[in-house]
């Protein structure tokens, strides 16, 4: 009886400790312009590639200038051929530093978010 209880409690503990999802959540893998990079001129689009496929309806990107004003031109779209990729169009950007904030829902139903900056203009 004692042994069975011990085995059961270990099994319960293992269940409680195990992550709900089997795979990793969706995190930013890389982007174009790259995280922290400087590009010479205003990019037309920012591409973000994630580590998991995304749910389009619950995945968004906001790009803001240093005053916090949004500079993305419409909502981010999942790439039609690649559910790992979000693309967001931009207005024409002046020289300056811009912040990219992403909120995504991966197909395993886990939400993640993050942000990074990039710079427009001669380094
Ligand atoms: Cu997950």
Explain the overall architecture.
- The protein has 123 residues and is mostly beta strands.
- The protein contains one helix and eight strands; from the N terminus they run αββββββββ.
- It has one helix at 2-17; strands at 28-32, 38-39, 45-50, 60-64, 77-79, 82-89, 96-105, 111-120.
- A four-stranded antiparallel sheet has the order 1-3-6-5, with no helix packed on it.
- The longest helix is centred in the N-terminal third of the chain and has 16 residues, at 2-17.
- It starts with a helix and ends with a strand.
- Residues 14-18 have low confidence and may be disordered.
- Bound molecules: copper (II) ion.
- The site of copper (II) ion has 5 residues, from loops.
């Amino acid at each position: 009886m004692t042994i069975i209880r011990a085995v059961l409690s270990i099994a319960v503990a293992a269940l409680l400790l195990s992550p709900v999802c089997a795979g990793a959540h969706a995190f930013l893998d890389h982007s174009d312009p790259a995280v922290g990079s400087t590009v010479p001129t205003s990019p037309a689009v920012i591409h973000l590639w994630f580590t998991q496929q995304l749910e389009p309806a619950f995945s968004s990107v906001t790009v803001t200038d240093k005053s916090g004003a949004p500079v993305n031109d419409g909502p981010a779209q999942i790439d039609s051929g690649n559910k790992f990729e979000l693309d967001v169009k931009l207005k024409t950007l002046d020289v300056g530093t811009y912040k990219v904030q992403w909120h995504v829902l991966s197909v395993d139903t886990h939400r993640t978010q993050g942000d990074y900056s990039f710079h427009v203009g001669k380094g």
